[in-house]
Write a structure and sequence with these properties.
Layout (H helix, E strand, L loop, with lengths): L1 E3 L2 H10 L8 E3 L4 H12 L1 H4 L8 E9 L5 E11 L3 E6 L13 E4 L5 E5 L5 E3 L1 H13 L5 H7 L2 E2 L2
Parallel strand pairs: 8-9
Antiparallel strand pairs: 1-2, 3-4, 3-7, 4-5, 5-6, 7-8
Length: about 160
C-alpha cells in the first residue's frame, strides 16, 4: 500500500513547508477509484490553468524520483503551465532523500491530481483526495479529522 497526500497536506505544506506525517490515507496503487481520479484530473487540466500563477493556493500532485531512485507522489505549487509542461516547487517533503529546492518541470501528462483553494472556502479538483476518502471508508481505515473537515468543500469546476 502506498501513502498518498491529501488536501490538508497541501494546505499546510504550502503555508508552512512543514512535514505532514499524519495527513495520508492508505490506498493501494492499483485501486480503480484512484485510476479514475487521475483520469478525471487529467481531463480537467483546462479548469486548473486559469489559477496557475494566481494569488490563490494551488496544488498539483506528480510522481517524482527521489534520491533513492524510487518514485514518490508529491504535491507542488505550480509556477507555470503550458500545453506540454508544468513547472512547480515541491512542497511535500520526500520520505527518502532531499526534496528539490528549486523548480521542477514535468510533462502535463504526469499530473495525478490538482486542487485550488478558493477564497470562499471551496476546493476545486481534489479528485484523488476524494477517491482516497471513499477508499478509506470502504476499507475501514481512519480518516484524519482535518481531511474530513475538507470533504464537504470539494466542488467540480
Amino acid at each position: 500500500m502506498a501513502l498518498l497526500s491529501c488536501a490538508a497536506a497541501i494546505a499546510l505544506a504550502v503555508r508552512s513547508g512543514r512535514r505532514i506525517a499524519n495527513a495520508a490515507v492508505p490506498a493501494a496503487r492499483d485501486e480503480p477509484l484512484l485510476h479514475a481520479a487521475r483520469e478525471r484530473a487529467q481531463t480537467s487540466i483546462d479548469d486548473l490553468r486559469p489559477y496557475v500563477g494566481s494569488p490563490l493556493q494551488v496544488g498539483v500532485k506528480i510522481p517524482l524520483r527521489n534520491g533513492a531512485d524510487a518514485i514518490e507522489h508529491v504535491w507542488g505549487t505550480p509556477e507555470s503551465i503550458d500545453a506540454a509542461s508544468v513547472t512547480l516547487r515541491i512542497v511535500t517533503p520526500f520520505v527518502d532523500g532531499a526534496t528539490p529546492a528549486g523548480p521542477v518541470t514535468v510533462a502535463v501528462t504526469e499530473i495525478e491530481d490538482w486542487q485550488v483553494f478558493l477564497d470562499d472556502g471551496r476546493i476545486l479538483g481534489g479528485f484523488g483526495t476524494r477517491a482516497q476518502i471513499t477508499v478509506a471508508r470502504r476499507d475501514g481505515h481512519p480518516i484524519p479529522e482535518h481531511v474530513l473537515a475538507q470533504e464537504a468543500r470539494f466542488v467540480d469546476a
